[in-house]
Amino acid sequence: MAPLPPNSTPRFKFNYTVNNTDHSFQVRSAGSPSAVGSLVDAFLEAIADAIYGLTISTAEFAADASDIFLPVTTGIEGNVYGTGFAGPPEENWFYGFIGRSAGGRRWHLDIFGARTLGTDYRIVPGESAVLTDGIDVLNASTSLIAIDGLAVTVYPYVNCGNNAHWQRAVRP
User: Could you tell me which residues are beta bridge partners of residue 110?
Assistant: First the structure.
């Protein structure tokens, strides 16, 4: 498949802090800011027991065909999900939710603050009810889209990892 421009759909960027480090993730959706905020809130609530304390700081929106993100209010700014704090090396751990659009385009959502990497860097169905609940929330969404603007089906497993960028950043 030929690549599509990154700005081919509306995007929401959620900026957050976990383990004293700032991160962000993007959600593609043509929904309203409050609708997307509700989706992200339900997702993060579902996985809260599997993550360290994560605080949403701000949200931004970029319309399709635009690369400019402007602040928006989604209703979840300031919300805290999960508990606790991790230092090295756990502070770099993340969960990778992946799937495909109805048109076959890849989709992913990485969240830092993972409490476990599983036994083989993948959490499969039945291994974590909490992460399965998060997948169910994403799959139940009618507004989540991929880069091609089509609905997303999230796979029933979650990849886990130790982010290489942050891993190198803590080396002496």
Answer: 96
